[in-house]
Specification:
Helix content is 35%, strand content 16%. The chain is built from 5 helices and 7 strands; from the N terminus they run E-H-E-E-H-E-H-E-H-E-H-E. A 7-stranded parallel beta sheet has the order 3-2-1-4-5-6-7, sandwiched between helices. The longest helix is centred in the middle third of the chain and has 22 residues. The protein binds NADP nicotinamide-adenine-dinucleotide phosphate. NADP nicotinamide-adenine-dinucleotide phosphate binds next to helix 1.
């Protein structure tokens, strides 16, 4: 049985990954920040839930210590939007640092903490749930300053870690889930959670070490940096 670890698994895209992986026969370690939300409704002997705040190394270490299996798949999904500030003067620097801490550094902490449980004789895949909003080439409308910067930083952290991890049989996949109907994406988002996660599961299934560092949308379209 393969083992997956998912952050921000209480609701939204993360919770949909939990459901899908359990249905496909995976063992799942699901991290929730405060409330279990949707995780509370799931009954499955292969589901292990644990509190996890990706900004807190104590919480991350306690979470990692509960994982008694080799990790085949780490999905760094936890994330927050920024303040939707309307102009440069409204940017709240403290809040911007929080967004970057959660969205960009959080996934790096998880990779660092689980590194020795991954790779080796068989491939482990680390999925970074990024966003097209992290693409510099695609930044035409501006704004969403901290959110965009956090996802750009996440992409760069990933590409910078990639080479070293190749030698350890750990591959990275940077995914944009689309604009998805969740609390973050809002009611008007055109993509259903199920559609997005279906597409991302297919990409994860096909992913190889040679593809490490690819930046791709849920439907398989490669994205500009
Ligand atoms: N929805 C979209 O359209 C869209 C588009 C592009 C990228 N994404 C990315 O997809 C990922 C999931 O987004 P979503 O739409 O599913 O958002 P969501 O419904 O708001 O869920 C976000 C999840 O992250 C968790 N989280 C927040 N801060 C955390 C922390 N410090 N430590 C651990 N967990 C934390 C939340 O936990 P709580 O329940 O405790 O708050 C929640 O489970 C994010 O990385 C987001 O940037 C989403």
């Amino acid at each position: 049985m393969k083992t997956a670890v998912i952050t921000g698994a209480s609701r939204g895209i993360g919770s949909e990954f939990v459901v899908r992986l359990l249905d496909n026969g995976w063992r799942v370690y699901a991290g929730y920040r405060q409330d279990m939300h949707r995780l509370d409704l799931l009954e499955n002997e292969n589901l292990f839930t644990c509190q996890l705040d990706v900004t807190d190394n104590v919480s991350i270490t306690a979470f990692a210590n509960t994982i008694e299996h080799r990790v085949d798949l780490l999905i760094n999904n936890a994330g927050v939007p920024d303040g939707r500030w309307r102009n440069i003067k409204e940017i709240d620097d403290e809040w911007a640092l929080d967004v970057i801490n959660i969205n960009a550094i959080g996934p790096v902490r998880l990779v660092r903490s689980l590194y020795d449980k991954m790779g080796g004789k068989s491939l482990s895949t680390v999925v970074m749930i990024s966003s097209l909003m992290g693409s510099i080439d695609d930044c035409h409308s501006g704004r969403s300053y901290a959110y965009r910067a956090s996802k750009t930083a996440l992409n760069m952290f990933t590409v910078a870690m990639k080479k070293e991890a190749l030698e350890d049989n750990i591959s990275f996949l940077i995914l944009h889930p689309g604009w998805v109907k969740t609390r973050m994406g809002g009611e008007n988002a055109p993509v259903e959670m199920e559609t997005s996660v279906d597409g991302m599961m297919e990409l994860i299934g096909k992913h190889t070490l040679e593809d490490s560092g690819r930046f791709v949308q849920y439907d398989g379209v490669d994205l500009p940096w």
